[in-house]
Amino acid sequence: MKGLLIAALLLAGPAAAQDNPLQDSATWDDLRESVLGLAADVPQDAGVLDMDAPMRAHEAAIVPIRLTQPHGAPAIRAATLVIDENPAPVAAEYSFGAAMMPLDFEFRVRVDSYSGVRAIADTGTGSQVMAGRFVKASGGCSAPAGKDMAAVEATMGQMRWRTGQENGRQIGTLMIRHPNFSGLQRDQVTLLNIPAHFIDRLDVRQGEELLFSLKAGISVSEDPVFRFAYRPNGQPIRVHVEDTEGNVWDQTFDAVNG
């Protein structure tokens, strides 16, 4: 689990604010209507939702994205993450429970080329808001896997949970071992393409209360890590994971120590 702990440390602090606003994109203009069914662009309002992402990714296969809200902002009930220039642009669809508000949620994605990365969020009041950044990265979806196939088989589905306090809020970090193969990578031994095989469903609860759920595509990073602020209710943390090969993993963690 050493690798998981290192990955968690990468997410342990706030993402550095960067002057990399979203740019006009013909790709987004097409996606907005043809994929998301939005007739008009969605307004950006950092007073409701903001995003931190690096201006230039250190590693295109593990780009940290952080969604945040100021105190008093309307609750975000759902958000769709779009990476404009990725082969499968809709990277993830999230649902959030009340205990996650105001949102402070960090995760890692693959970015395949210079691209706008945007979250289109639903406040539950019939209105939407968008937050995003322009990220310079290349090759994230085809980057070689970080370990060999034997290690993948031995560790897939393992999880780690930890929790602590930061700036007066409870912070949980969930780490899941999974290669999340995109279908665009090559086995470094056989040089054959590795079939797509990734986590496509994730549900995280404290007791019966939803923290967040995820429907994902190929753009979520290998060995995903989710770091988030939440309001604890004292109940155990319950994690349910499904992948595209029909594997299912369930694990329950002590609310405090994991």
What would you say this structure looks like, in words?
The protein has 258 residues and is mostly beta strands. The chain has one domain: SoxY domain (Immunoglobulin-like). Helix content is 10%, strand content 37%. The protein is built from 3 helices and 14 strands. The protein has an 8-stranded antiparallel sheet with strand order 7-6-3-4-11-10-13-14, with no helix packed on it. Strands 1-2-5-12-9-8 form a 6-stranded antiparallel sheet, with helices on one face. Strand 6 and strand 7 form a beta hairpin. About 5% of the residues have low confidence. It holds the Pfam family SoxZ. Keywords: Signal.
Attribute tags:
8-stranded antiparallel β-sheet; 37% strand; signal; SoxY; 3 helices; Immunoglobulin-like; Quinoprotein dehydrogenase-associated SoxYZ-like carrier; mainly beta; 258 residues; 6-stranded antiparallel β-sheet; Ig_E-set
